[in-house]
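Final report, closing paragraph on structural work. Over the funding period we assembled a curated collection of sequence-structure pairs, and we close with a single example.
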Amino acid sequence: MNCAGMWARQVGQWAGVSVPLHAAEHFYIVSEPIAGVHAGLPTLRDPGGYTYYREEVGAILAGFFEPVAKPWGMNGIPANFEFTRLPEDWAHLDPVFDVMARRMPVLGTAGIHTFFNGPESFTPDDAYHLGEAPEVKNFYVAAGFNSIGIQSSGGAGKVLAEWIVNGHAPLDLWDVDLRRNQPFQNNARYLQDRTVEGLGLLYDMHWPFKQFKTARNVRRSSLHDRLAAAGACFGSVAGWERPNWYAPAGVEPEYKYSYGRQNWFAYSAAEHRAVRENVGLFDQSSFSKFLMQGRDALAVLNRVCGNQIDVPVGVVVYTQLLNARGGIEADVTVNRLDAERFLILDAAALQNRTGPWLQRQIQTAEFATLTDVTSAYTMLGVMGPQARALLSQVTSADLSNAAFPFATSREIEVGYAMVRATRLTYVGELGWELLAPTEFALGVYEALLEAGRAFDLKLAGFHALNSLRQEKGYRHWGHDIGDEDTPLEAGWALR
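Its predicted structure, as stored:
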C-alpha cells in the first residue's frame, strides 16, 4: 500500500509503478486575535479570490489557492523532511493579499501572527489517486489528495479497504482511479509544469470542457499540424491533442467559457449536420489499439467478451469486456484479422486501464500475447451519407453493401497506401474507419481532402462526434456505463 503522500511518486518508482504527483508550496496566514471572532463561525470560501477563511482560536486563518503556484522538490524531497516550514514568500502572494483585503477588510488592519508555507502534493488533473496499480497486481495507492485529504480520508479509506478485500472497487470511482493516468504523466518536467496551474484550478470555475493550459502538446497525431492549419481547436485527453471543433476562417480556434452556449456551439453544430446530411472527416488516431495474437487468443477473448468472437476473418464484433460480476470493463470492437490475430479498439482515456486488464486475463498456460499498437496507426473516420461516394474516388475497392457489408473489415488501397478499412460507425451513419500506418497517414489524408472538395467534405471534431452518438443513443464508457453496469442494464438485451 503506497500512502506516501508527496513521496508516493518515488515509492511507486521503486516498484515500477507510476504515481504522477508533484509537491507545491502551499500558503496560509493566521491573523492576530480579532474582536468578535469566535468558535462556531462558518467557513468562507471565495473562489474568485482564490482564498478560504475560517476561525482559528479567536483569529482568522486565510489559506490560498493562487492561480500561479510554486512547484517544490524538483531536485527530490529530503529524506529527513518532517514538519518543516518552507521560507516565507510575501511577494508571491501580493496579488492575493490585495483581493483578501477587499473581501475581508478587517485583515487589512489586523496583524499577522503566522505566515505558514509548507509543501503539499498535487496531481495532473486535481483528482486524487486510488486503487490498484495497472503495473503490479495487489499494489494499491492512496495518494495525491490535492489539499482535500482530511475531508476525503474517511470515504477514501473505506472504499480502498473494500477494494483490497473484494478485488474491485465498491462503486464507480473512475474519476480517482489510478489507471486513468498515462505512463508519460510520471515525467518529472511534465509534473512540474502542470503543478504551476493545478493548485489554483481547485478554486477556479469548472467550466464544461475547460482545458488545461500547461504541459500540453504531449501526444499529437501525425496530422496535427494540418488540422491546426485548418482551424482545429484542440482538447487534451490522455495527453492527446484532439480536434474538438473547427473554427471557420476569421475566428480564433479557442474556447471562450460562458454560462450560456459556448462560442464553439454553432461551429460544432455545423459539423454535426454535415455528418448527418453529407460527409465529415474525423481524426480518431487517439483511440486505443491492442493486438491480441496466439493460438489461445480466441479462447481468451471469448471468455471475457459478451458477444461471440469466433467469427469469420474480416468480421468485426462490437462487444463489451465483462468482469466476473458481469460488469462492463470496456466497450470495444474486436476485429478478426486471421485465425489467431485480433485487433481491439477502445477509447483514448482507457488505454492504461483496458490494456493491463486484458493482459491479466491471459492465464499462465495460455499461448497469447497482447501488444499496445496505439502509436502504430493513424485512424481517420469518413462518416455520412456520402461516405461511400467519396471513398470510391480514392480506392478501387468495391464498397457496395453486397461486397462490403456492415461490420466488415479488410485492407484496401487509398491513394498510394494500403489501409485497413472497417465499416463501423459511432455516429449512426454510413461510414468507414480507416487505419493507416502512421508514415502513410498524411498521404491518405491529402487524398481524402482532394476528393472531398467535390462533396463539400467537412472536418469534424470530437464535440460533434459526441453529440452525434448521443443523438443515436450510443453509450460511452465512463459517462453512460461503467464496471458496475451489465449489458442488460445498459439496454443491450437481444431483441
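The longest helix spans residues 149-166. The domain at 1-206 is CATH 3.30.9 (D-Amino Acid Oxidase; Chain A, domain 2). We thank the funder for supporting this effort.
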